[in-house]
Structure formats: C-alpha cells, structure tokens
Amino acid sequence: MKGKNPEELFRTEHKRLLRNGEFSMKSTANSCMLVATLIATVVFAAAFSLPGGNNNEGTPNNLQSTTFLIFVLSDGLALLSSILMFLSILISRYTEHDFLKWLPLKLMIGLTSLFFSMTTAFCFTFIIAYHSGLKWFSQIDRCCTRKVNVVD
C-alpha cells in the first residue's frame, strides 16, 4: 500500500467491484438489447404498414398531416436509439472512468429515448387511426397546424 497514489490504491482494492459492475452492466445491456431488437422489429413493420393506409399510387394518405410527420420521426428515432445506445454499452471498455460517467449516462439516454419515442409513436398512431371519432382532437389539430402569418 505504501508508494501508491490514491487512484492505484483504489484500483487494486476494488478489482472485484469492477468485475461485478462489468457483469451487471453487460447483463442489463443484453436484456435491453433484446427488448430493443423486439421493438425495432415492430417499428420496422410499422414503417411499412403506415396508419391511415396508402392511396392507389402507394403514397401514404396522411402524408401532409403534422401528426403523421411526428409519427414517422418518432418511429425512426425508436428504431435508431433503441439499438445504437445499448450496442455502445456492450462494446464499451468498462474502465473505472467509464463507470463514473459514460456508462450510466448511456444507459439512461437509451432507456429514456426508447420510452419516449415508443410512447410518442403509439400515441400518434392512435390519433391518426381514430382522429375522426375523437371530437377533442380536431381542436388540438387545428391549433397545431394553424399557419402563422409573419409581418415584415
């Protein structure tokens, strides 16, 4: 113990803790990667079976709708964020410095973006599919799609 700086002393005293943390982080990332792969499969299928259907030319019926644009963006975000963030955890080096900041940050970003993008995609799919039966939605839709005139 003599002649070692605090960082070297910490490293030698906590080797087992580092291995346990690496195992825990890898198992969490593997579980999240499995869920992310399942979600990516559903998102990929949703990209080809769009809510609202297609016209005779193959163009989506709701192409000009703001809600459709939000659906498509959240769908793409769910596809990318779900897999890339957890993959970056799996290929990490698992050093002490990684555990201090980057690994918890990557895990939280991955889980948060996965949750919000999937929730947004579900909500806007519901709105696109059932907007004609929702009386309150027409008022919200008018507010969101109202054009603002800019005066020079």
TrEMBL record:
GO CC annotations, alphabetized: membrane
Residues annotated as transmembrane: 28-48, 68-91, 103-130
Record domain PGG: where: 25-128
InterPro entries: PGG_dom
Keywords associated with the record: Membrane, Transmembrane, Transmembrane helix
Protein name according to UniProt: PGG domain containing protein
Record lineage: Eukaryota, Viridiplantae, Streptophyta, Embryophyta, Tracheophyta
